[in-house]
Amino acid sequence: MKAKEKKKLVCLCNGVEQSLIEKAIKEGAKSLDEIFDLTSAGVGACGGSCRPQIKKLLEIHKNEIKKNPEED
Ligand code: FES
After folding, report:
1. Which range of residues forms the domain containing residue 27?
2. What tens digit of pLDDT does each residue of 21-45 get?
3. Domain containing 27 — which CATH number?
4. For a substitution probing ligand 1, which of 9, 11, 20, 40 has the most ligand atoms within 8 Å of its CB?
5. Quick check: is 72 in a domain?
6. Mutation pick for ligand 1 pocket among 46, 53, 54, 55 (CB with most ligand atoms within 8 Å)
7. How many angstroms separate the CA atoms of 20 and 16, rounded?
């Protein structure tokens, strides 16, 4: 089931897969704006209907990774 989620398209406007968003978070993106900049997800023609999903991914993976303890 996890592998299936990895191929999930999150941002339909810009064709951004969940795996790319997770990669951006793992590489240090800590906010929605940083994810938008790194992946182009969330800034498509629809005005960002995928943003709640991106936010959810950020919250999930930010807690798992926690690369920068200074952010607390
Ligand atoms: S689906 Fe992501 S901006 Fe439209």
Report:
1. 9-66
2. 999 999 999 999 999 999 999 999 9
3. 1.10.10.1100
4. 11
5. no
6. 46
7. 7
